[in-house]
Prior knowledge:
Blueprint lengths: L1 E7 L11 H4 L4 H11 L3 E7 L3 H11 L5 E5 L8 H9 L4 E5 L21 E4 L4 H12 L1
Keywords: Amino-acid biosynthesis, Aromatic amino acid biosynthesis, Lyase
Enzyme class: lyase
GO biological process, one term: amino acid biosynthetic process
Amino acid sequence: MKKILILNGPNLNLLGKREPHIYGSRTFIDYLKTIEAQFPEVQIHYFQSNHEGELIDKIHEHGFTFDGIVINAGAYTHTSIAIADALSAVTAPAVEVHISNVHAREAFRHHSYLSAKCKGVIVGLGLTGYELAVRYLVQE
């Protein structure tokens, strides 16, 4: 059975409440049930934190034993060399996901420290981006 880690960074615990015109009105926990139903043959481990070090710890914990990582590091995408280094250090391939189209937003969101460490990047497709990332990693 394939194992995929889904990591969400800061403020993504507020999905469903936070700026629904950008992020939609569905919570991630509700959406996670949809992903799990679509991939019953995949063990999906989900973790969300507003703390950079906790995200790095999860990458270290699962990055050598899991088959892939789906990561939406939130604002840490644009600031965290440490998360990028953690992704480089492990063997599991990663796919970066962003719910909104970061390239259509503020200029500081246009740069990602993570993208170069990932197999691919999915932006602007809403929560569906997570499903696409899991599908890719399962077929990898």
